[in-house]
Known about the structure:
This protein is mainly beta. Helix content is 8%, strand content 38%. The chain has one helix spanning 3-12, and strands spanning 22-24, 28-32, 36-42, 51-56, 59-66, 82-89, 100-104, 107-113. It starts with a helix and ends in a 15-residue tail after the last strand.
Amino acid sequence: MDKTKEIAKKEETKVEKTRQLYEAVPAVDIYENEDEILLHADMPGVVKENISVDIDNGTLAISGVRKLATEGAAAYEEFSDLEYVRSFSVPQNIDVEKVEAELKNGVLRLHLPKSEAAKPRQIEIKTA
């Protein structure tokens, strides 16, 4: 695939905003183990195509647009289309190239693997 097609394809995946959306901060749980940092962001009603995850200059930015399908004119509305937006500082020990994301049941799960140099290790003691 040449670079022109690849760049054009990336532009198509951007979330289109047709009107001003209400913004909400998604609830997030963060877990850490020896191998990675796990981030779970609650984004109900958002589909994969409307989610954006970017890491740039040490900042992780997530956003997702929840679009509601409606029929007819609303007589009364308490919720409508909504954009979830949140950002985090990313530690330097994260291997940005290996970050993975998955969406299941309205929860965005981000796997932020630690670089090999940042993982804890046992130091072998040598005897003379």
